[in-house]
Write a structure and sequence with these properties.
The structure is a single chain. By secondary structure, the chain is mostly helical. The chain contains four helices and two strands, in the order αααββα. It has a two-stranded antiparallel sheet. α3 runs antiparallel to α4. The longest helix has 34 residues. The termini are far apart.
Length: 143
């Protein structure tokens, strides 16, 4: 055989050996961490669950007081909504007047019908938002 042929075979043999060595020496680059087990989570105490499911008489009475306050708030807002609707229905666009006053005794009155319509629209929108929030609070409250 010629010298070139021997060299080619040696190169092939060297390549095969290096590939095998590289594969044999392969190590993971990143350490794999295991997910936390159930022991790592904080257990909920039985007493806390019991207090939530079966509250004491004192806790129930406090919640009842809070619920009554929410109910009064809802009733008040609904009453104001009814009053506002009566005002809007009874207005004819000529005799309405909106007046504002502050704690210092200053007063401001508006009689322009277009301005009053805009103010009433804003009041109705805000009142509607307040009523829907109060309604949700009453519905979601747990005594």
């Amino acid at each position: 055989m010629s010298q070139k042929a021997n060299t080619k075979e040696e190169v092939k043999d060297v390549k095969k050996d290096n590939v095998l060595k590289v594969v044999e020496n392969l190590k993971p680059a990143v350490n794999v961490e295991k997910a936390p087990t159930e022991d790592a989570k904080k257990p909920i105490e039985k007493q806390e669950v019991s207090n939530l499911l079966n509250p004491s008489a004192e806790v129930r009475l406090k919640r009842l007081d809070q619920f009554l306050i929410l109910g009064e708030k809802f009733k008040f807002l609904k009453t104001k909504e009814d009053e506002l609707n009566k005002f809007v229905l009874s207005s004819d666009g000529t005799k309405e007047k909106i007046s504002l006053s502050n704690a210092s005794g200053f007063k401001f009155e508006v009689t322009n019908s277009q301005t009053i319509e805009k103010v009433l629209k804003v009041i109705q929108e805000d009142l509607s938002i307040f009523i829907s929030k109060a309604d949700e609070e009453v519905k979601s409250f747990i005594v």
